[in-house]
Amino acid sequence: MIYDDDNIFAKILREEIPCKKVYENEYVLAFHDVNPQSKIHILVIPKGKYISFADFSENALPEEINGFMKAVGKIAKNQNLVESGYRILANHGQNAGQEVAHFHIHIFGGEPLGPMISKT
Ligand code: 5GP
User: Fold this and answer.
1) Is 104 annotated as catalytic?
2) Which residue among 9, 50, 71, 118 is the one 20 to 30 A from 29 at the CA level?
3) pLDDT at 117
C-alpha cells in the first residue's frame, strides 16, 4: 500500500482543511475528533507519512516513535486525564475499521468509557 497524500489528515497537516488543534510539536499534531465518541476525543497523528500502526512501528525512526509516544502521554496529562483515566486506541486495517489511512491514535476520556470492545 502506498501513502495517499490526499487523505484527510495529510490535508489537515498541510492546513488545507481546519482542525481544532490541541497540541503540536516537531513530531505530532493533535486535534479534536470531528465526531467525538466520548466527552474528550482527541486524535494524535505523526507528522511523517505513515499509513497505519503497522507502517509506523516498522518504518518510523526511533526518535519519531519516542516523540510520538511522549506526546500522547503529555496530551493526556495536559487534558487532566491521568487521575480519572483514559483509553488510547489505534485502528489498523479493515477488521479494525480504519477510516483514515494516516496513522493516528485516539485518546478517549472525560467520562466512564464502558467495555473495551463493543459486542454489537
Ligand atoms: P479511524 O476509524 O481511522 O481509526 O478514525 C478516524 C477518525 O477520524 C474518526 O473518529 C473520524 O471521526 C475522524 N475524522 C474523520 N475526518 C475528520 C476530519 O476532517 N477532522 C477531524 N477532526 N476528524 C476527522
Assistant:
1) yes
2) 118
3) 87
The region, left, alpha or beta by phi > 0 then psi within -120 to 50, assigned to residue 97 is left
Domains of the chain, residue spans: 8-109
**Shortest-distance Cα residue to atom 24 of ligand 1:** 34
pTM over 0.85: yes
Reading the block at residue 78, the C-alpha cell is 495536559
Q: What is the pLDDT of residue 25?
A: 97
pLDDT at 120 over 80: no
CA of 106 to the centre of ligand 1 (A): 9
Question: pLDDT tens digits for 37-46?
Answer: 999 999 999 9
- The CATH architecture one would assign to domain 8-109 is 2-Layer Sandwich (3.30)
